[in-house]
8-oxo-dGTP diphosphatase
Amino acid sequence: MKHLAMAVVVKQDKVLIQKRYRADRGMVFEFPGGKVRLDETGTDAAIRELAEETGIKGLEHTATYTKVNELGGRIYFVILRARQEVQPTVLNESIKQELVWFDADDIPHGEFFSADREFISQYLHQYIATPA
């Protein structure tokens, strides 16, 4: 059973999305994130993964949502607010990663895993509508 944590970074009316290569699916859209270690919370894992994948640190934690993921573990969606000047950096060229700020209405829902699509459709807009 694998627990996952996703960093949902919101900057005014935009959301940080990564496009990266997955061996079993090719290029996919997803939030920055990864596995939760045994010694950390889902929120801590999302913050750590965000820093490891994008170099972004020190964001304001707004909320954490959790549900059962497709692998039978937990998935944590951690909403973090970014100031206007915050920009991600591709830190690992080997994962063929692209980092893009999307308007909430332009997020390519169909390209995400089902748990991500559910989070986007049910919860994301309430954080976009709130000023940073």
Observations:
- The radius of gyration is 14 Å.
